[in-house]
Each structure stands twice: as C-alpha cells, then as structure tokens.
C-alpha cells in the first residue's frame, strides 16, 4: 500500500508519461493482463487509458487490472490511471512512508 507522499511522487513522475495500455471494448482479458505485466516489468510505472468503447467504470477497471497484476494504483484521473509495481531491484526510489498519526516527531 502506497502512502500519500509516495502517491504524490509517482503522480509527478507519471505526469509526462504516454499511455502504454489502452482498454477498449474487449475490456480486461488475459492478453491485456500479460501486456500490462510486461510493461510493469520494464517501466515500474505505467499509464493506462480507457477508450470510449470500454463499458467498465474507471475505478472498477483500475481495481481489476491492479489486482490482476499485483500492482498499486497511484492515481485515477479522468479516463486514465497510473499503476505502479516495483521491479527487482527497484529503479524508482520512493520517499519514506508518512509517519502514523499517533507518533510524535523528535
């Protein structure tokens, strides 16, 4: 699970990305999941676009694809969303997670 600070960092990195996966009328099927997994293996952070012919809701599509690819959703905006899955070894360095609300700062 990504923290708010980590999601902001990934959104900033993903702003200039072009969509590498397009979801159309066939929606989310095995071939699309394989393509998304290959893209995540190469890039760690990918942008996915829903086409007009897709009948899925943007949040539903993001949840389904992220669950199938074992990835985290960094952002859902309009008809696009960002997926993140760290590579081994990670190329994108995420900021440290936010401290829990109950912890005092020293």
SSE map:
Elements: H1 4-14, E1 21-23, H2 30-43, E2 45-50, H3 58-69, E3 72-77, E4 80-84
Parallel strand pairs: 1-2
Antiparallel strand pairs: 2-4, 3-4
Question: How would you briefly describe this protein structure?
Answer:
The chain has 106 residues and is of the alpha+beta class. It has helices at 4-14, 30-43, 58-69, and strands at 21-23, 45-50, 72-77, 80-84.
Fold and architecture overview:
This protein has helices at 4-14, 30-43, 58-69, and strands at residues 21-23, 45-50, 72-77, 80-84. The longest helix is centred in the middle third of the chain and has 14 residues, at 30-43. It has a four-stranded mixed β-sheet, sandwiched between helices. A hairpin with a 2-residue loop joins strand 3 (72-77) and strand 4. The mean pLDDT is 90. The chain is globular and about 40 Å long. The chain is an alpha+beta fold and 106 residues long.
